[in-house]
Every structure is written in structure tokens, then in C-alpha cells.
Amino acid sequence: MLNIEEVYYKDLKWEDFLKSKNSISEIDQNKTKIVKEIIENVRVKGDKALREYTKKFDKVEAYDFLVSDKEFEEAFKNVSSEFIENIKEAKENILEYHNLQKPIPYRINRESGTFLGRKVTPLERIGLYVPGGTASYPSSVLMNAIPAIVAGVSEIVIITPPDKNNKINPYVLVTSKILGIDKVYKIGGAQGIAALAYGTESIKKVLKIVGPGNIYVSLAKREVFGEVDIDMIAGPSEILIIADENSNPKYIAADLMSQAEHDILASAILITTSKLLAKKVKEEINKALENLSRRDIILKSLNDFGKIIIIDDIEEAFTISNEIAPEHLEILLDYPSIYLEKIKNAGSIFLGEYSPEPVGDYFAGTNHVLPTGGTAKFSSPLSVEDFMKKSSYVFYSKEDLLKNGEKIIGIANKEGLTAHSFSVKVRLEDEKY
Fold it and tell me: Catalytic annotation on 357?
């Protein structure tokens, strides 16, 4: 039975509310210990450890991890031409959006002959984790790989756990091939993350690991950060919807459930000025639940982490939203674009009743790899820049060093770094004699 909590804004205990949200991201120390052991085992034993863990966790005897050409061919036979066309169109939409994100190199030229600037270089090799088993996540391939492709990453490899028949989901393989990625490895879990971070006989070490996974994958990414870069430590999915008496309760109910079905820990929140709308939304959820395959997950998620917050004034909605900093924020108000300036903290913003969150997940072009757990206050969606590094460079002319050398020496001496000042001083002295 649906028992989503309903509360007035003035009665909302902020500290307790935020604590309840944060508690779903607490780290299980026992799982952390297991992950550390797996990583160390793979680091030392390489492929041998990968085979042991694949047999243990995936129930598969692994001999060759790399997906063969024949398996790619079979995958294309097992998906519809309609799916292929849809993926190709989604690819073009996502490319269009991300092509505008390329960071620009620049150079400053001074009359003295000095010049300085920024050099932009793509990462050479990245690894993408795609959840597997009974699930199918071709959208994870699109959203994580396309920014890297636009950035100019030389090599992208995918790891994904096999099913009990040692097969990879055909939709994942087809999407990978459409993007030009033909190195897909049948490896999952923390052991797969370790293989990407340290390399084994079969898998070369990468420079960055991206992609979603379960708690073990997330903990493994956290453990190897520093050895390699990672995208983020993603928590359970979140949606916050702002609506009023003019909003459609059926749409709101559907959108709340679309996020709640991800995970029993997912958070779905409605903020509204209308008590009547809140009632109608709950009625619509109860009606729709009967026909949804993940009904039990949705119910538990909404009952444990869902909330309907009743406000007196729509301005309060943006105060609350900016404090929560949701992963997904839907504005289901008339003329939604006028509220953009009020939003300071959100992963991705969906404007209007015909912009449900799934259009961003799959097709519109924006990226669905988003900050969770309030981290949208200081971080951003995955982008092309995440796969590029920036180097500064400087050519300092003799004229400028003679002019400014004593100033540099003075600052270095104030910091007590006499070798720093000496490296400038020897050049100045050479010019005196």
C-alpha cells in the first residue's frame, strides 16, 4: 500500500530530512573490506583472479574475456532493425549536444615576445563499465562513450558481466558496435574495476573509469581513484518535481514512479502548492502501480524515501530544491523557462510537461550521468571536458625575465624557497657579465 509521506514546508524538519536522504549513501564497512581484498587479488594475480571471481560471482568458466566478432554478429541478428535505427538517432542527438562542449585552447602573445596559453589533450585510453546480467543498459554505452568519442579519446574499452550462459546482452553489444567500440570484455564487479585500474594479461590499464554499477562497483571505483581517474561515485537515483494546481497529476505520478523503479533507495519528491494535486497524484500512483513490473520496488522506494512537500508560495519550491540539489529536477509549471534563473543546484533540468526525465535518459541529447546525493551543489553532468586534460605553457622572453626577475626572486625569498630564487638569479647574473 502506498504510504508516501506528506508534509507542509513549515513543519519540515530540515536536518532530519537531509539526514534521512544522506543515510542511504552510508558506506558499508564490510563491503569495503571485501572490495579491497578483490582489488588486491586482481592486482597481484591478474587474469587468474578474474577467472576465479567470474566463476564465483557470474557462475561462468571464463577462458577468453574478449567478445568475439562472431558474438557481435549474433547480437545484430537478435535485435530489431527498429532498435538499431533508434540507437543511431539517439547517437546523433547526443553527438550534437556534446560537440558544443569541446574546451578551447588559447594563447596570449605579449609585445616583449613572451607567450603563454593552454593546450588541450584528450585522454589516451578509458574504460567504461556497463551493468550486465539480466539487465540491459545500452543507454549507459551512449552516455558514457559519446563524450569520450567527441573528446578524441584514442581507445575506449567496455567491461560488462556475462550472464550464466557467458553471453553479453545483445543491445549493449549492438550499441557498442554502432559507436565503433569493438573491445568489450566479459568481466564485471569490483574485479573488473581493478582490472581496468591496474591492468592484467588480457586488459591494458586505462587512465579513467566511467559508468554505473552496484555498490561493489562504486566502492571499487572509490578505492582505485588516484591510480586512475573516475567519473563520480553515484548514489541512488533522485527526482524532484515542482508543480501547482495546473499541473497534470497523471504525468507527475508517472515521473515519480519512473525514478522510484530504479532502486528501493531511490528518492522521488513532489513539491506543490496544491493539496488537491497531492491527493490526485497519490490516486494516480495507486492506479498505475498494478500494471508495472517493478511495483514492489516502486512502493518501497516511495514509502521509505519519497515525499510530498506542500508549500504556500511557489518561491519556496526553489529554496527547497536548491537545498536538496536533486539529480533530476522537473518544472511542471506554466512557462517553465522563466524559472531557470532561480535554479542554482540541479544535475539536469526538465522544463514542461512534455519533457519527462526519460527523454534525457535516452534520446534528447543531454547526458544522463549526473551528480547525486546533493553533489550537484558543486559538480556537473558528465561532459566532453571530463575526457580531456588541460596543460598550461609559457615562453618567457629574456626581456621579461630581466624586467621582472627581481620581483620573482623577492616572492620566492619571502616563501623561504631559496633554490627557486637562485634559478632566476643565475640567469640575471649571466646577463650582468
Answer: no
Cβ-Cβ contacts under 8 Å for 29 (sequence gap 6 or more): none
For this structure, is 328 an active site residue? yes
3-state secondary structure 208-270: EEECCCCHHHHHHHHHHECCEEECCCCCCCEEEEEECCCCCHHHHHHHHHHHHCCCCCCEEEE
pLDDT at 263 over 50: yes
Give dist(CA 257, CA 237) in Å, integer: 12
User: Over 90: is that where the pLDDT of 236 sits?
Assistant: no
- Across the chain, what does the average pLDDT equal? 93
Q: Are 206 and 197 in contact (CB under 8 A)?
A: yes
Distance CA 381, CA 114 (A): 37
| Catalytic option among 328, 353, 357, 368 | 328
Mean pLDDT for 114-122 is 97
pTM reported for the whole predicted model:
0.92
Question: In this structure, what DSSP letter does residue 365 have?
Answer: S
Residue in the structure block whose three cell numbers are 556475462: 162
| Residue 14 predicted with pLDDT over 70 | no
Q: Would you say 10 and 311 are in contact if contact means Cβ atoms under 8 Å apart?
A: no
| Mean pLDDT, residues 34-59 taken together | 96
Catalytic residue among 327, 330, 353, 357: 327
Instruction: Sheet containing 208-210: give its strands across.
Output: 184-185, 155-159, 125-129, 208-210, 229-230
**Digit-coded pLDDT (tens) for 127-164:** 999 998 666 799 999 999 999 999 999 999 999 999 99
Paired with 267 in beta bridges are: 238
Cα separation, 145 vs 125, whole angstroms: 12
Which residues lie below 8 Å from residue 426, measured CB to CB, with a gap of 6+? none
Q: Which residues are 329's β-sheet partners?
A: 240, 349
Q: Give residue 6's pLDDT.
A: 85
Query: How many angstroms separate the CA atoms of 390 and 276, rounded?
Result: 53
Q: Rounded CA gap, 122 and 104, in Å?
A: 12
Give the pLDDT confidence of 172-194 residue by residue, as tens digits.
999 999 999 999 999 999 999 99
H-helix or E-strand containing 51? helix 47-58
Judging by DSSP bridges, how do beta strands 106-109 and 5-8 pair with one another? unpaired
Kindly state the cell numbers that stand for 56: 564465483
pLDDT at residue number 208: 98
Alpha-carbon dihedral sign for residues 86, 88, 91, 95: negative
Short-list 363, 432, 433, CA closest to 88: 363
Find out whether 142 and 363 touch, Cβ atoms under 8 Å. Answer: no
